[in-house]
Amino acid sequence: MFFLGKKHRVDLCLEKEFYQPGERVEGTIKLEKRNRDKMTRLEVELWELAKGGKWEYIDHVRSFLLGDELEAGQSRVVEFQTVLPASCCHTKQYRLKTKLVTERNKMQVDHDPINILPTWS
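Given the sequence above, the corresponding structure tokens read:
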């Protein structure tokens, strides 16, 4: 069964909603192949909401090379983990941007907020 005209899906699912600066972030990335385009890689980036309401790139977090073992209609789960920078501040907004890239450089994107807890010294 093929989903002609439908795009692949990517979804990062984090284990927690709130984090301390420098804490390990863990979760899974669910991929769903929905057409014949070969899925080549996953990229996860950390972004920060800057003054003026524009999201700014902070850091490349992880990359995964993907084989094309899935048929259209099948899904796969990839384990994910990274460590947040110790410089993250609870007064700023952050998100992880997960990109699924195909062999024709088409992208599907997922955004997940990273909520930082205040630290008390």
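Residues 9-116 form a domain with the Immunoglobulin-like fold (CATH 2.60.40.640). Try to locate this feature in the token string yourself.
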